[in-house]
Write a structure and sequence with these properties.
This protein has 213 residues and is an all-alpha fold. Among the domains are: 28 residues; 121 residues, Orthogonal Bundle (Cytochrome Bc1 Complex, Chain D, domain 2). It is built from 9 helices and 2 strands, in the order ααβααααβααα. The longest helix has 24 residues. It is extended, with a radius of gyration of 26 Å. The two termini are 52 Å apart.
């Protein structure tokens, strides 16, 4: 490290510590967020449609938008390209050893689709799509999974009416009521069981890596 860089770092740290001490003394830390700043961050969409902006998009508009923004990774028909995930198909595979989890076969809420596209896509250009484009792309993904017909238009008004194929495939997490109380008592530290038995081996469960011969 050069002498000048070392001096600059020491000076910067000293100024930062002084500024921090000053702010801590008078508690003048930052400012309240402006309404427009909060709105820019608050883009979440709930399963019942809360948080959706006004707008709409039909399947065929979504077909064009998907081809422009999404197909390079997810394929023209949402089937996936290479290691990029498929968004369509996989119906009836959730009980297999290697299930195909797509929007149609796995995702229980349409809000997850809309929110993810709106928040994170296209890859590298997140939040560059308009609300209407997100509605249209979501409609096309639904069509690719045979959830809607080709004349379907998705909007903030009919959003909650769309039922996903795997909507009933999840259960409510009831562990706070059924399991947590058992964990909060005093733990047993000795003579907790009459005898220790091996009930299963990792090799039988097929979780132990083995070298191929």
């Amino acid at each position: 490290m050069s002498k000048y860089l070392e001096i600059a770092l020491i000076a910067g740290l000293t100024v930062g510590m002084t500024a921090s001490a000053s702010m801590a003394e008078d508690y003048g830390l930052g400012r309240e967020a402006l309404p427009e700043e909060i709105a820019a961050w608050d883009v979440k969409v709930m399963p019942d449609g809360r948080g959706l902006p006004e707008g709409s998009g039909d399947v065929w508009t979504g077909d064009e938008a998907f081809g422009m923004y999404c197909a390079s990774c997810h394929g023209d028909f949402a089937e996936g390209v290479g290691n990029w995930p498929s968004l369509a198909g996989g119906m009836g595979t959730l009980d297999r050893d290697d299930p195909v989890k797509t929007v149609g076969s796995y995702w229980p809420y349409l809000s997850t689709v809309w929110d993810y596209v709106n928040r994170s896509m296209p890859y590298g250009y997140a939040q560059s799509l308009s609300a209407d484009e997100v509605y249209a792309i979501t409609a096309y993904i639904l069509y690719s999974n045979n959830v809607v017909d080709d004349d379907f238009t998705l909007s903030h008004e009919n959003f909650a009416e769309v039922e996903m194929p795997n909507a009933d495939g999840f259960i409510v997490d009831d562990r706070p009521e059924t399991e947590y109380p058992d964990w909060r008592g005093d733990p047993c530290m000795e003579e907790c069981k009459d005898a220790v038995e091996i009930t299963m081996r990792a090799a039988v469960l097929d979780v132990t890596p083995q070298d191929e011969e």
